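Appendix B: a complete holo record

For completeness, this appendix reproduces one full record from the ligand-bound portion of the collection. The bound molecule is LJ64HWYM. The inputs are the chain sequence and the ligand SMILES; the output is the full three-dimensional arrangement of the complex, encoded as structure tokens. No fields have been trimmed.
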Amino acid sequence: MTYITSLKCVHCGREYTPEQVTYYCEVCGYHDGILDVIYDYDTVRRELNPESLARSTKYSMWRYLPLLPINNPGLIPHLQVGWTPLYEAPGLAGELGVARCWVKDEGRNPTASFKDRASAVGVVKALEQKAPRITCASTGNAASSLAGFAAAAGLPATIFVPGRAPAAKVAQLLVYGAQVFSVQGTYDQAWELCMQASAEFGWYNRNCAINPYLIEGKKTVSLELAEQFMTLTPGSFPDWVVVAVGDGCTIGGVWKGLWEMHRLGFIPRLPKVLGVQAEGCKPFVTAWQENTCLVPGEANTLADSIAVGHPRNFCKGMKGVTESGGAFVAVSDNDILRSITTLARKTGVFGEPAGAAGVAGVRQAVAAGMIRPDESVAIIVTGNGLKDIQNAICAAGQPVSVQPDIREVRQAVAASGKC
Ligand SMILES: Cc1ncc(COP(=O)(O)O)c(C=O)c1O
Ligand SMILES: N[C@@H](CCOP(=O)(O)O)C(=O)O
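The structure of the chain with LJ64HWYM bound, as generated:
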């Protein structure tokens, strides 16, 4: 039993019951007709409130079950997802020139990225529908999370990843036992192929841009943020929430969760949302700056997770930033590399390039006067650094090579001046 009242098309406003439709608006089609899950918030509030959360012993995203589209909680896989740590980072705040800074470490999820929140919901929905198999297209993280959660649930999975996906992410897929297609093309091409295959073979489609339920999992990061801040800094909330953007589903989910927690009275005011893209792949930034529609473009960035030339959830991604009065910024690949080490050295949190990109985004937004020095920021570190060792080494450099001889160590220490 859920508190969903309807699934509403973000394009034409048509409303459906969950029984009437599986993925998208039948009139607008999958390019435009993305559906939003609408709840009966008055009823939700009776079950989800500060008192009920204080009593909850579920330290995972499932503590927000009344705000999730789950009919049969008995099907929830056992892996613990969500309830990730939120750290205050005064050293990073000083480095970035803001009043206060917090970091939410999403790399602590079971398959080491934020995407676990969505895949956990996707697997339950597939099981509820008795689907024979689940599929997705992915730059790597959605894929590894789906493979992990499908394995936990005993559900077969087929994954489409672009040939450039980092080896660690591909290794995760294979280890979890998914059927993996390494598409010799871009993520955008892998996405189209996945759509065709799921239609042809009847596989349940986890792609967040067409499956309305997946963003519901993603939004739980903001439900947690709201609850964690309620405890940490009662009565206040950061001025900005910052996250990297590829397809736009993540930032769309972040905004939905913030909006809901404000609506339910958990946070005093809504923060602004900062979306961070790479210079070589910035369709959101361009459309936002020029106030135009989406123009799909190049996907040239080392941050593979946000190398998305044709964002599939432009509408929800744009909505998060515009409704919040926030901003989009683009950062260079060099800045992204630098943000990996800055984040790690100032906080001890190791992010993959897209995970750390928020740090570069804040730096850029402060320099541009978008974020004021007296404002506070919460940065969502969306994926763990071990996902992409090659770029981590590019960022941090090589170790000093020595023979097993203390004289070489003495020389190296003297040369480095670090003793
Ligand atoms: C680590 C990481 N950060 C950010 C994103 C961006 O999310 P979205 O493509 O939904 O905008 C992704 C997507 O894969 C990701 O894996
Ligand atoms: N870059 C993403 C793209 C797909 O993820 P989704 O959750 O938006 O469907 C990834 O592969 O992780």
